[in-house]
Each structure stands twice: as structure tokens, then as C-alpha cells.
Specification:
heterodimer, A: 108 residues, alpha/beta, Glutaredoxin, 5-stranded mixed sheet, 4 helices, 32% helix, B: 309 residues, FAD/NAD(P)-binding domain, 2 domains, 7-stranded mixed sheet, 5-stranded parallel sheet, 6 helices, elongated
């Protein structure tokens, strides 16, 4: 699995990435969250599949409290799709790959 | 991934991992298909104190990690795949249709797809999911530091999660539709002794309200009177619903809730198809019987496979 293709975001570089040329899917997660772990391999899979088309990124909410607060995140995993810095749509919970593909397609 | 296996194990929770351990040790030509990381619902459990062999207790996370490591020591073969439909029409060959359009066939199949949290199906629940509505205290409790939250339910999961939530929340109100809890006595004792936990008996939630986050719950008492409760979060922990999408339920003689009946050897009514864990039609859904059923199912699968040749 190509985990190096998943971009690790922090509060400092978040804005620049979501305003980038490519749509960005951000997985808000934490190490103590079981369903976040469950969805991990799917995120890595998507990162390989959408390389060059969609930026697939993760943000650890423990280390970066500001951004999740800004988006009112109260449950993880929450996956938010951004395009030109704007929220396109979001999903909460450990969902299957097809639901994430459907989410990503909203920005393509 | 190959196109055919002797045995496919569908799902990687405790039942699937235990089946995987037995299948790998039996040197069966096998694969365990899982749509994410292995673990299942146990990943949602903050603390497991009733699994024998771990006298100090451990997190659900650690328990399934150990189960996975254990099976991998014997070369359990796990593949990431999402099965969309299971076709049992052919007597010999079971056909699994995958999300990417491909197919995998097998001689014997063990269904370990498990179950997931029930929803309460009231107005506001869907809209405020992730904005105060949660189904996993272990996952989301840290977002409710010094806040007042509600837990809906009266079983082990609900009461254990209420207890866990008090580490973060200022107050936890348990809302239960009966006048007593179903949870194991020792779990009840801890909850009753916790002064951060308050109980609202004989009440049901009829709506979850809030403009962009949960603000309050509407309640109705069994005597018909109504009330509301101001909370910033609500944890819905009222039992489980089977993960049976894509399974031929009629053929498997599923019960009215969609769980699959099995015999004492974990066999379903379809020859060569076994089921183990929370997907089974049964009264007790614990990690330990899921794991036990996984083992039994592989032994039944072996017997079935031997009969084929």
C-alpha cells in the first residue's frame, strides 16, 4: 500500500493545500479512533488511484485542534472534500470505498 | 488475488480473524476479504474486560490487533475488497461480486460480516450526524470536554460508553425506554456509583434538534408526557443491525431482522456456507462467542470440503 501518497496536513499548511489546483479530500482522524483505523487502507488505496487528479490528505485532530474546530467536526473519521478552498461535501463514519469514490466524483 | 479459493472468509472482525487463524493453520487455500482494516465493531470498544486470557483487560483496538497478528503468524491471507453481492445459486461454486466489477469464487464460504449500530430514525438524526449525533463514544468523546451529553440505550454498550464519556463530558444523561437496565450487573454498579451519570427512565427520544449542531432532544415519557433536554451531543447506542447487504437473505432463511440462522456447527441452510459472529441469528453477541463460532465454522468448512472430493 502506498501510504507515502497520502499527504499529512497540519493547521499551518491546511489552507494552502485546500486552495490548490486539485480538489482535496481530507480525512480527519486520530490514533485512538478505531473506525479511523478501519478506513485507513481505503484512503491509501484512493491516494494511489487518484494520484495527479485529487489530493488525498489526512489530518490528525489531536495534533491540530484549530482546523477541525473551524469546520465544526465533532465525530471522526470525518472526510471533507474541498475544491478551490470551498467545502463540496462531507461524510462522517467508516464508509466503504464506493461511497468515498462517489464523494470524490462530486469535485471532478 | 486469485479468482478461486477453497475457502473465502467474508469480514475481518473477531469471528473472521478467528476463522482465519483456523483456516491458515489447516493450510486451506483461503482468503479473508475485508473492506477496510481488520477489527470490526471491536474497534469501537474502548475497553474489553471480559475476554479470557487478558486479566488486566485491554482496548478493543489492541485485542483485534493481537488477533490479526496471531492469524498472520500462520500466514493468514487478507485482501482489501468490498463484496457487493453473493450468489449462491450454483450448488458447487459460490460467487462473490466485488465493487470493482471483478468476481471471486469459492467452494466454501464463511460469512462474518457482523453488525453495525442501529439508528433511532427520528427527525434530525441524519442531518446532525457528525455534528453532535454519534454512534461511538470511544471515537468522539474527546470532542465533548466539559459538555453535557446524552446516551440513548440501556445495554452493555450504552452504559459502558456512558461511563467512558464521563472522562470528558461534565454530565452524561442516560435515556432509557424502560425502568431498568439490561447491562451486566458490574457495569450497572459502576454507572450508578458515578455521580456524573444521570438516568432518565421510561423515556424515548422523538427528535434531535439544533441549527448546525445538536442543541436539544425532544422526549416522550411512556405515560405520554413530553419534555426536552438541552445537550450538546447525543450518543445512540441501541443495539445492532446486520451487515447483510448483497447476501441472498431468502436463500439463507434470514430472520425478520436480517440475521442468518446457523446450526451448532455454524452451518447455514445452504451447503458449504457457514456464518459466524454478529451476523448470526442469536441472543448473545459477545467477542468470545464470535471468535468461537469462527473456529467452529472452519471445522465445518473443512468437513464440507473433504466431502466434495
Amino acid at each position: 500500500m502506498a501510504s507515502d501518497k497520502v499527504l499529512q496536513l497540519n493547521d499551518a499548511d491546511f489552507d494552502a493545500v485546500i486552495k490548490g489546483a486539485q480538489p482535496t479530500l481530507v480525512d480527519f482522524w486520530a490514533p485512538w479512533c478505531g473506525p479511523c483505523k478501519a478506513i485507513g487502507p481505503v484512503i491509501e488505496d484512493l491516494a494511489a488511484e487518484y494520484e495527479g487528479k485529487v489530493t488525498i490528505a489526512k489530518m490528525n485532530v489531536d495534533d491540530n485542534p484549530a482546523t477541525p474546530g473551524k469546520f465544526g467536526i465533532r465525530a471522526i473519521p470525518t472526510l471533507i472534500l474541498f475544491k478551490n478552498g470551498q467545502v463540496v461535501d462531507q461524510i462522517t463514519g467508516s464508509v466503504g470505498k464506493s461511497q468515498l469514490v462517489a464523494l470524490i466524483n462530486k469535485a471532478l | 488475488m486469485k479468482s478461486h479459493y477453497q475457502l473465502v472468509i467474508l469480514g475481518g472482525g473477531p469471528a473472521g480473524l478467528s476463522a482465519g487463524l483456523y483456516a491458515a493453520r489447516a493450510r486451506l487455500d483461503h482468503v479473508l476479504l475485508e473492506k477496510g482494516a481488520t477489527g470490526g465493531q471491536v474497534l469501537l470498544t474502548d475497553w474489553v474486560d471480559n475476554y479470557p486470557g487478558f486479566p488486566e483487560g485491554l482496548t478493543g483496538f489492541d485485542l483485534v490487533e493481537r488477533m490479526a497478528q496471531h492469524a498472520k503468524r500462520f500466514d493468514l491471507n487478507v485482501e482489501l475488497a468490498c463484496v457487493t453481492r453473493v450468489d449462491l445459486d450454483d450448488e458447487r461454486k459460490k460467487v462473490l461480486h466485488l465493487e470493482d466489477g471483478s468476481m471471486v469464487t469459492c467452494d466454501a464460504l464463511i460469512i462474518c460480516t457482523g453488525a453495525r449500530a442501529n439508528t433511532i430514525n427520528v427527525p434530525g438524526e441524519q442531518e446532525l450526524r457528525g455534528k453532535g449525533v454519534s454512534y461511538c463514544g470511544t471515537c468522539d468523546a474527546p470532542f465533548y470536554r466539559n459538555m453535557h451529553v446524552a446516551v440513548i440505550g440501556g445495554g452493555n454498550t450504552a452504559i459502558q460508553e456512558a461511563e467512558y464519556l464521563t472522562k470528558f463530558a461534565s454530565k452524561v444523561t442516560v435515556i432509557h425506554r424502560r425502568d431498568s437496565l439490561r447491562a451486566t450487573k458490574i457495569i450497572q454498579e459502576m454507572a450508578f456509583a458515578n455521580d456524573k451519570i444521570e438516568f432518565l427512565w421510561n423515556k424515548r427520544v422523538t427528535a434531535i434538534e439544533g441549527s448546525n449542531a445538536v442543541e436539544r432532544l425532544q422526549l416522550v415519557d411512556n405515560d405520554g408526557s413530553t419534555s426536552s433536554l438541552e445537550v450538546e451531543g447525543v450518543f445512540v447506542l441501541i443495539g445492532v443491525t446486520p451487515n447483510n447487504a448483497g447476501l441472498p437473505l431468502e436463500q439463507l432463511n434470514a430472520d425478520k431482522w436480517g440475521f442468518i440462522p446457523t446450526d451448532i456447527e455454524s452451518r447455514t441452510c445452504v451447503p458449504g456456507v457457514m456464518a459466524a459472529g454478529d451476523i448470526c441469528s442469536k441472543d448473545v453477541r459477545q467477542i468470545i462467542n464470535a471468535a468461537g463460532e469462527g473456529a467452529v465454522a472452519v471445522l465445518a468448512a473443512e468437513k464440507y470440503l473433504q466431502g466434495l472430493h
